[in-house]
Amino acid sequence: MSLGNRKDVRRSNLIMVLEAVFIGYIGYLTFELITQFFGNLTTSLTDLLTSIGVFTFLVVLSALSVGLYETKLRETFRGIIRRIFVSVALGYFVMEILSSTVMTHIKIHQYFLPIFAGSTIIALVILRYFVNRLGILGLGQTKIVVIGAGERASIIEKRMRREVDRVGFELLGFIPIPGDNREEGIQNEKLIHVKIDENFRNFVSDNDIDEVVIACDQRRGTLPVEILFDCRLRGIEVTDLLDFMERETGQIVVNLMYPSWVIYSNGFNSQNYLRDALDYAVNCILATIVLALAWPFMLLTAIIIFFEDVRNSKASIFYKQERVGLNGKLFKIIKFRSMRPDAEKDGAKWATTNDSRVTKIGQFIRKYRIDELPQLLNIFRGEMSFIGPRPERPQFVEQLIREIPYYNQRHNVKPGLAGWAQLNYPYGASVEDSMEKLKFDLYYVKHQSLMLDILILIRTVEVVLFGKGR
């Protein structure tokens, strides 16, 4: 076993022990919680330790069986959550069988095991977030080499400059090949001069490479199919640059897309039929909760807008504007007025940072997203969702569809109050900015799920509370 493999095994063993300790501690906290609610229980220390120990063993064993401790687990965070849920569910199922057969002598509260199992899922998800997503312990980190050092490969250098962008992998370097545009290519990264032949096979083996990223400018006649085929047979991942960037950065690099990649991908339509069926009901429930909490702030905002601007101008407190919604259907968006009534006397204009047309109260309510709250009515009408790409004006959409490829695909889902692009890209006011935001919008359209929606909601709350509005 190589030194690298021994390190990987140690990391996996460490995370397994760490999770076992976590589960045991959660079991203790669960018992203390039940004791607080139901008074002193007659459970002996031996029975408690036995229950916690057996359940911990079953969950860790299940996690081992579903691959959660594989040294190079290449899985999305959503996939990891699914595996955790399956592991705990299997452990819970077996524990229930044991409790009713061979462990009948153990007396413990009936709510202990269900609460223990639910809390374990939450605890393991949080732990795995820090371990896998932030690169703690190096678990899940892979060794990567990039074939290509030209213009396409340079997107990695430009988009993933920071160390935090590369916590999930170790990039050994870029291999220049014939056909690469070196003038627009890699400038500051390490270049590896090795021929893509038998020498490459040896290079991959000697350096314990886990993944090869294909990022060459010219594919025809330059890619050694037999060598790459051999890599796949040996369990080494061979990944297209677009898939790599999508996985690691949470965006789709629109300007590098090509038709065959779109054809062989899973498309830009949701396949989550249960989520689609419950979409309106869930959004209405969330809108009702937010309205119940936010109406005092909305009332106060309306009063301030009236006295600052509306009282003299006779304009409306609310601002209605036509936007493009699901499948290109037009609707009227509703917002608190944050600009002067004559803001568009010269026609539609992009909003900009420090826009002189914005009123004093407008600056504040934009910073904390209060101006967006009247859109709860759009949600009740079924025109918008809580999460989705921000709706754009039809005048701009016509221009953007002409100038940006695949722009119209963002209308495959309902527009939303909050979006993946708003969290990942600063305020934009140009075609170029729209291109950058589209990369995140298409990622959301392609990967829309309940877990991604929850992540966006949590991060949006942080934006609102700390005034990081974009």
Report on this model:
- With 470 residues, the chain is an alpha/beta fold.
- The chain has 3 domains: 3-138, no CATH class; 142-249, Rossmann fold; 273-341 and 349-465, no CATH class.
- 52% of the residues lie in helices and 9% in strands.
- It is built from 16 helices and 8 strands.
- The strands form 3 sheets. The protein has a 4-stranded parallel sheet.
- Helix 1 packs across helix 2 (45-65) and helix 10 (273-313) packs antiparallel against helix 11.
- The longest helix has 41 residues, at 273-313.
- The protein starts with a helix and ends in a 5-residue tail after the last helix.
- It comes from Paraglaciecola hydrolytica.
- InterPro entries: Bact_transf, EPS_sugar_tfrase, Sugar_tfrase_EpsB_2.
- The chain crosses the membrane at residues 12-28, 48-68, 80-99, 111-131, 280-307.
- It is found in: Membrane.
What's the quick description here?
The protein has 470 residues and is of the alpha/beta class.
Given as residue ranges, the uncertain stretches (5+ residues, pLDDT < 50) are 1-5
- Strand-residue proportion: 5-15%
Distance between the termini: 50 Å
Structural class: alpha/beta
Gyration radius over CA: 27 Å
The helicity comes to: 40-55%
The largest beta-sheet arranges its strands as: 2-1-3-4
Molecular shape: flat
Look at the structure and give the mean pLDDT. 82
